[in-house]
Design goal:
The structure holds two protein chains of two kinds. Chain A is mostly helical. In chain A, 66% of the residues lie in helices and 0% in strands. Chain A contains 19 helices and no strands. In chain A, helix 12 crosses helix 13. The longest helix of chain A has 35 residues. Chain A is globular, with a radius of gyration of 23 Å. The relative contact order of chain A is 0.16. The C terminus of chain A is likely disordered. In chain B, helix 1 packs antiparallel against helix 7. By secondary structure, chain B is α+β, with helices and mostly antiparallel strands. Chain B has seven helices and nine strands. In chain B, the strands form four sheets. In chain B, strands 8-1-9 form a three-stranded mixed sheet. Helices cover 30% and strands 12% of the residues of chain B. Classes of the chains: A mainly alpha, B alpha+beta.
Amino acid sequence: MKQYLKRNPTTQIVNSLRKDNDRGRNWTFMEKLLMGLTPQQYIAQAITNPFNWFLAFIFAVGIPVIIGRFIFGLEWATGGPQSNAWGLFLGFGLFGMVPLSSSGFQMGSAVEVFGRHDMEPLERLGILNGILGYLFAVIFLMCDLGQPWRLPYPMVVSWGPSSVLFLVAWHVATYLSVQAAEVSTPFFEWMGWPAGRTAIKKMALGLAVAGIILSTLHQGALGALSTYAPGKIHPLWYSASFQWLYFFVSSLPGGLCMVIVVSTIVIKTMAWRCDNNFNINLDKLHISLAKGASMGLFTYLTIRMIGVAHDNKWAYLGTGWGAWWLFEIGFGVVLSLLLLTTGVRNNNVTLIRLGAWTTILGVILNRLNVYMITFNWKHGVIEIPPWREFMITITIYCLYIATYRFILYRWPILFRWKTKYSEYTVLAAKPATIPATIPAVIPVIAEPEACPVGK
Amino acid sequence: MIDRRDFLKGCLACGVTAASIGVAGKNAFAAGSFEGYPDSMGVLVDLTRCVGCRSCEAACNDEQNLPDPDLPFDDKSVFKEQRRTTDKAYTVVNKYEVANKDTLFRKMQCNHCNEPACLTSCFVNAYTKTKEGAVIYNSKVCVGCRNCMIACPFNIPAYSYSSPTNPMVKKCIFCYETRVKNGRPPACVEICPQQVMTFGHRADLIKMGHDRITSNPAKYVDKLYGEKEVGGTSWMYLSSVDFDKVGLDNHMQNEPIISNVKDFLGTVPMVLSIWPALFTGIHLLATKNKGGHGDHDHEEGDEQ
């Protein structure tokens, strides 16, 4: 798309309810889906994008494997591990993606609860990142469950309320609805249903507070799940008292850094879709997010240390597992902290973006360590999942990326949706121009009066 | 400023959320420390008597209608490696070479904990601890999350992964339906030619175990494994060597597994009750005198 717009700079991309020319008639749904291009233009831009070919290759191999998993059973796909019962689908897909999706509640509460309206250009991206992460975590879960069609059982058929997983199931289900409500604002704008949008806006505060409650509990609960397995997880990664805090606290910088990483990828690959407000504020917002992430990381580091001290586990640091633990903390926490804080101090966004990457990798590594790598450490073998399990995991993750991109291209997440009639009638005569670096169509109109951002 | 209607709506939204999930918090506290039913049955296993004939495996296979094994039950080559219970074998016997001692064998099956981790970790309550002490399983409600396999401190439950449409957890159920419910000992206990296992009331078996140790202190290590481990188990073991050497974790906690989770479950009602007021309050403080609430996102002037 980026290349296509470079070649065809006069193309008008849908960013409003009505067309600029053609007497300002409404865009049809089909036009909105194709972003204002003709089907031929759309296909032409799609096949010139090498990333689409990569996705096509992954789906061509991976989707048959996913179908195979449901026809031939879990053993065919994952080898049917009896002792390490949770593999990549949960270790990476659920436990890894959920903390990186905490951005939804953090950005929502920063803007709605704490009144940080300067964060608004990233609020919708944060919320979208949140709901997609949860949605695909549930899709990973569906692949992993033996009988996924029974997923609603803990809600309607049989309750096991002493179980932490019961809490997780209820919270994730409730929170998905909360996030669906939050993310419907841009959807309603895109569809042109102002009534829905207005209704959601009125609930914004309630939704944000519900988001905080649910997230505190289920992010923690994902950690508390591992306290069922005291002898199996290596002691350095296990603490009955602090496990839920480890998971909750690390999810905070995880979610913030995921927003930094995603918005960095966005500005590099789809700058044409971002409006001026987004472009101008991004560096400043990354510094703000990095401040928050550093505080979270520092708290996390402290709690991990207290956890080791509390149970007096220092002796384990001298073992091979201890070295691995030091690597996880050194790379994922200490290095990230150094990069982020140096970046904040020197206004160096490159360092911050690098630090955001190491933070999210550190969070994922931690989840893999707890649920896969150190799990059953006394058995002395690290179980490597079979290739089909890797393939399914990669395929679902690519589906996540494709869905993410599909929505970012269309819904007003990175740009403001123009609804005022006055905003485009004046433009009727003049098609939008797209300079190479300032991408959004007609940036001038949108800013001044309605949006107090940056004041 | 937030107006009263918005505030009430916010409270309502939080309240509904809290009510929908409050169940988890409340009932979590109902799981106090449970030390087993008074008339619970159990089995005392004396490892010094076992000769590794594997007839218990055969009897179990027959009683539970399990599929035929790859190797016949009199094949001793299976002892070359350490096996675990699977969806096709609810009990397996392993061989342990112990320095300066004779070779020992240990039969492995579900130990039927007093407060089972599989049961307390199950989010659809598929497990039941019966008054006879058996931990049984209802495959009709099982979703297949396999949290019980993660939670079991003895790595016992297995999953029939090979079935695409109806996979389920497979584990020893103490021959509950066919025998223990009617007061008969499980198939493995009955078949054993060496009287390795004694079936009886758990309380009596504890006395019997300690009596054996007292009357023959040179033969046994002074510990009845399973009396206290993870809150006590219905199956208990006597051994002539340290239990670590026969594959039983000697450092198992004495509290039930669920006690590790209570720290977290205790925070649930606190968060549910304190957070709504706390964060709505912070919102009021943070947005005081800013006058910008609600209209920050080009709200007015929408024309379609």
